[in-house]
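Office hours follow-up: a student asked to see two folded examples consecutively, so here they are.
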Amino acid sequence: MAIIDFQGVCVDFPVFNSTGRSLKKRLMSVATGGQLSEDATGVVVIRALENLTFKFEDGERVALLGHNGAGKTTLLRVLSGVYAPTSGNAIIQGVLGSLIDISLGIDPEASGLDNIYIRGRLLGMSAAEIKAKTPEIVEYSELGDFIEMPVRTYSTGMHMRLAFTISTTLRPQILLMDEWLSVGDEGFKHKAEARMNDVVQSTNILVIATHSRELALKTCTRALWLEHGKIKMDATSSEVCDAYFGPAA
């Protein structure tokens, strides 16, 4: 069973180098995804998320909608544990996996095989799990003998095939994504699409930030519309998409 339960969650970022009056004035006057204010000491504070209250449970597929800077990425980072709430309570129960940066930790000087171990450990896999899954990763990535070559010798497509295959080996209870992953040439894209669908189907809760109406409607049952770090609308994906993108033609 997986649960994500946010109650009044806020995330603030102090800007410590903005003490100059002209800089503060300039910061206060520009448009921003969050909200700008000053604390009691005069330090500029950006409120990236404000009073987020929602609950995701097993079976939910949630799209995060909103313009650039609306707070989607910040929310994903709170969910993944990169950021901690400044105030409020965030309860996350379940094994969590992230497909936000599938190349994180890949060492270009190390071989493909070595990077399977490095990336696998970053994903929380044990050495035994990595050893057991390595043959399947090697076969699926279609790298052949290049698997023993340094990653710096790979083409961009080869690099992405390796990173994608390693990252989608796990089947987490909570899956976080920033847009849908599509990698490789046409032949591999079909494999990748099938693998992505399998990963999504096997997860208890999916949270995906997207700008695509089609993806939100096809993949998700629910959507959160974020604006300036606040929830503007929380309803079914079709209801939120009609409000955010406009009624379907």
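And the second, which I mentioned at the end of office hours:
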Amino acid sequence: MANAAKRWWKYLGAKANTELDDRADPRVQLEQAMAEAQDQHRRLKEQAANVIANQRQAEIRLNRSMEEYERLTANARQALVMADQAARGGDGARSAEYTATAEAFANRLVAVEQEVEDTKSLVLQSAQAAEQAKAAVAQNATLLQKKLVERQKLLSQLDQAKMQEQMNRSVASLSATVGEDVPTFAEVRDKIEVRYARAKGMAELGEEAVPNRMLEVEQATMNAEAVARLDALREQMGLPMPQPPAR
């Protein structure tokens, strides 16, 4: 029973995630992914900065130990010189004191020498870690830059997809009825074309009637003028006038 409930709960979760992915805005999801990538890069830089800081601290400790080592070496040498001078001057007690002081410096010198060697190893390790951290940051920065370029490409593709989807919906709406009482675009177009063709035909018929009558009148006028001109020429030439045809 518990396993069945667990499987059902997982199923509901997967279904909810699927519905969320279907309804989510890809632009918002893309921005979320980019924000997460940038946040990861920021955290990587912080970790790399800590590694580099450890290297710098190790180098500071090494420099300080080296300075301490040089100081102890100089003091031990000076104590030996002063012990030798006291022995030569016949002051055995003071010579013994300087010798003991030189031994104390030498004991401290041995400890500092070991500290220097340990710190050198630490500096070497931290330097390698710092180089690896720098390389990781540089590599991730390159990947992040590629993602930024790809982000612009994806946004452009998303805008093109939205525009194409809108065009598809527009084309579909032009070829489909909006409702029972609303004609399609094609039906309205056919009606308009029919009315236009009919009106154009009526106009052409009206235009043809008037010019035909005008041509007929003009032709009759020209014929009458021609007959009158011929009669005038016959009269000038003394020719007989033609007789009208018998009925």
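Two things to take away from it. The chain has four helices and no strands. Helices lie at 2-23, 26-88, 92-174, 185-237.
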